[in-house]
Amino acid sequence: MKTKRPLSIYIHIPFCVRKCLYCDFLSAPASGETMEAYASCLCREIEAAGKLYPDHEVRTVFFGGGTPSILKKERICQIMEALRRAFSLAEDAEITIEVNPGTVDADKLAAYYAAGINRLSIGVQSLQENELQALGRIHSTEDFFQTYSMAVKSGFNNINVDLMSAIPEQTLESCQDTLRQLLSLDRPPSHISAYSLIIEEGTPFASRTLNLPDEDAEYNMYEATAQILGEYGFEQYEISNYAKKGRECRHNVGYWIRQDYLGFGLGASSLYGKERFANTQDMKKYLENSRTPEKIREKEPLLTREDEMAEFMFLGLRMTRGISKAEFERQFGSEIDAIYGDVLRKYKSMGLLLEENGR
Fold this sequence. Notes:
alpha/beta, nine-stranded mixed beta sheet, three-stranded antiparallel beta sheet, 13 helices, 12 strands
């Protein structure tokens, strides 16, 4: 029996209640009518693409945004049904949806769980009211605790929480307090994503004078995050991600080891073999042509061997396990030292790279 090729799927929901002040993602508020039309078009795109990739098994699915939980629960269930019709989903597929406090209730969470979604990613960023207000978040800390409690009661036992550091008004003490509050929950999350704020051009933050922690404080927050999470049994497996054993985000690891993935929805990116392509960011064009994937895809030049090797290196080195020398040779037919020997020796001599057990 022929083994099916593994595949990951990303589904972009480009809607939110209100743009956060730091956000440069492809997302915006929209009318209920637009959101309903978009969900239907997503299903058409998924079903059309299923015919193009028949010999695949979907190992992970990730609903991102925007705020996917802003859609009616029926629409998320409809999209899950379209996925099952169009693709073969692995029995143990990891299926994640991003949710924001203030956009879900018990019925919505129960519907997600019944539809086969088995992992939640809750965006809270901070558990300090002044920091949430500074970020322009729509929720309070109490909203988060209510959402988290409802998620656990709905059956979810694989929950990620997003946190942000180096944000306006934050101190090392407030950063540590947020972590301690989160970890003192009766059933703490199994995964935490902890990112530093980056001020992106074109966002409201870029045009403001902000009271940001200095570089030393930011470094101390990063170190404190790893230390505190380590005390509670979390392992840092990637630059910004920490997990209990066996709870690493399989979807994101797939990106870092360059597994094939397809992106559905407005502006969603894909990697398939040597091809990278992205959907149009023009909503009108997307809504009119979603049933014909080739009409909405904007292809990039085919990746060269040099491109693929560079991606293998810089994506793989995001993870603490690093990269496998044997896997590099298997994929590219050359020893890693023959291609990158000089630069590897340079950074090893500086104490910035370590080589052990063939990695």
